[in-house]
Every structure is written in C-alpha cells, then in structure tokens.
Amino acid sequence: MNTVQMGILMIFHPMEFLEIIKRERGRFRLMPVICLILLTAACNYTYIFYSNFALSTKQPQEANVFLEIAIVAIPLLTWVVASYATTAVITGECLFTELLTGSSYCLIPLIITTPALGLLSQILTSEESGIYKGLQSIVFIWTVILLFLTLKRLNDYSFFKTLGVAVLSLIVMVVIWAVLILIFALFSQLVFYIRDLFIEIRLKTA
Questions:
Q1: pTM > 0.85: yes or no
Q2: Which of these, 5, 45, 107, 151, has the minimum number of CB atoms within 10 Å of its CB?
Q3: How far is residue 164 from each of residues 89, 105, 138, measured CA to CA in Å?
Q4: What is the tens place of the pLDDT at every residue in 4-61?
Q5: Total domains in the fold of the chain
Q6: CB atoms within 10 A of CB 56
C-alpha cells in the first residue's frame, strides 16, 4: 500500500492499519514520516492566511514555516522517544520505527480537517467561536485517540496498562523538554561568557 491508501485505512480502519504496521515491521520507510510531518505543517501554515482572522490565533505577519514544522515535529518526535523509552522498560513489543510510523499517521485527522476548518471559519462570526473551538477540540481528541490506539495495539497492552504507559510517557516528555531547556540555557550562558571574555581581552590589548 502507498501512503495515501495507508492514510485512508488509518482513518476508517485504524486497527487494520496497525496490524499491517506490525506485520511489515521490517519494511520501515522514512519518507512517509517526513511527508506527513511536512504536510501537517503546510496545512497549519496556509491555514493562517485563509482562516477568519477573528477566529484565528495567529496573524499572517506572524507566519513562519519553520516554526510550524517545529510545532508539529518536536511534540511528535518527543512523544515517540518518550513512549518508546517507557515501553522498553515496561515489557513493550513494538520497535521504534513502528511507533514512529504509526504515530506519524495519527496526524492524518489534522491534515484533512485543518483546510476544512479554515474554510468553515469564513462563514462563522466571532459570536460562533464556541462551535469552531468545539470542532477543533473534536479533531484534537480524535488524534489523541489514534495515538492511544497505536500505543496499545503495537505493544498488545490492555486498556489500563496503555493508559498508565501513556501517562508515564507524558511525564518523560516533560523531563526531556526540561533537560533540553536546561542544556540550552547553560550553553547560552557559556556562549555569552566566552563572548564577554573575548571582548574584555580585546579591550585590554587595544
């Protein structure tokens, strides 16, 4: 199956899709993962320009394609790393590549609904923002459910075990982000210190 067929299968028959992922675990392809991330980012980026400004949280002058890619890729990849690390400890069965592939296809609801929501926003007013936000919440919940099913099926966990692993994975995600932010802050301080030291040496030798 190609990427489009697999995406359709994920929408209408997610469990059958996940069975195919498990059955073809040795045939990992990176390109669909990259395409799904970039396509989601592209939908989010173009949405900024044609959605109703009264309902949008971003203005066109704030649009940044690289930021949109980061908004999609960083949470997704962090989730995959965190959940795989958790399942590796708690008798998980899936491979990292399986979890990455399955989780990437969970972006399909965002890809197919973001353009539709953008067009719908053109006929809604700010007083009807509750309807619009409700639809956005439904899409978000749909995506989360697909991520949950992916984690459950690829590891053959029970419902409650999957729930526990998902909570632990979220905690691991927070820890990963905290560590990365700390490393970035320390590195920035080091760079500033070296720069100030270099400037001071230049002034003294001038």
A1: yes
A2: 5
A3: 13, 23, 23
A4: 888 888 999 999 999 999 888 778 788 999 999 999 999 999 998 888 877 777 777 8
A5: 1
A6: 17
